[in-house]
Amino acid sequence: MFDPNKFNWRIFNPDEGVPEHVCQWLLDSQSLTAKLRDKYIDFKVNVLSQQKDKPFDCELKSLGSVSHKTIFVREVELIGSNAPVVFARSVIPHTDDTNIILKIGSRPLGEILFNDPNIKRGQLEVGEFNNIWARRSTFSIGITNLLVTEIFLETLYA
């Protein structure tokens, strides 16, 4: 469904001319879940899949050395006003650190990542493909890194 290799991933440059309505979402360092709950009274998560999978090469590079681990890929739609507004893809190595995350079902991943002071967020990267903007960053849980990518759909800005 989503190929992160098509996006030109980089550290944000304010001289790029990204529209302000996109920057409000793209550069926000807080929980996307909380921000979507503020905007949409009917916010929910639709889990498309969560299964053992082989991540894309650019995802493996972001995670570092995980080739010897079992990796789960979780893909979800974040729904507001009965329509998908964000597509999210998380690459989660299966370790003792991530056991709880792999059992959250349809709960938003952001509830865990932003409510646990021991989980640290890495540097934010942004990407664009065919005028669709996305961001991604790693999160460190214990000694395990996981990668979260969020693709902002046009319906978000409506």
Helices, strands, pairings?
Layout lengths: L19 H7 L5 H8 L4 E9 L4 H7 L7 E10 L2 E11 L15 H5 L6 E2 L3 E5 L2 E10 L2 E9 L6
Antiparallel strand pairs: 1-2, 2-3, 3-7, 4-6, 5-6, 6-7
List keywords for this structure.
alpha+beta, 158 residues, 17% helix, Chorismate lyase, globular
Outline the structure in words.
With 158 residues, the chain is an alpha+beta fold. The protein has a single domain (18-157), classed as Chorismate lyase, CATH 3.40.1410.10. Helices cover 17% and strands 35% of the residues. Strands 1, 2, 3, 4, 5, 6 and 7 form a seven-stranded antiparallel beta sheet that branches.
What is the structure about, briefly put?
The protein is of the alpha+beta class and 158 residues long. The chain has helices at residues 20-26, 32-39, 57-63, 109-113, and strands at residues 44-52, 71-80, 83-93, 120-121, 125-129, 132-141, 144-152.
Arithmetic mean pLDDT: 91
Number of helices: 4
CATH class: Alpha Beta
* Form type: globular
Question: Can you tell me the CATH architecture?
Answer: 3-Layer(aba) Sandwich
Beta strand %: 35-45%
User: How many domain units?
Assistant: 1
CATH homologous superfamily descriptor:
Chorismate lyase-like
Element-by-element helix/strand order: HHEHEEHEEEE
The number of strands is 7
> Terminal Cα separation, in Å?
23 Å
Structural class: alpha+beta
In CATH, the topology is named Chorismate lyase
Q: What is the C-alpha radius of gyration, as a whole number of Å?
A: 15 Å
Task: State the oligomer.
Answer: single chain
Helical proportion, percent range? 10-25%
Low-confidence stretches are none
Largest sheet: 7 strands, antiparallel
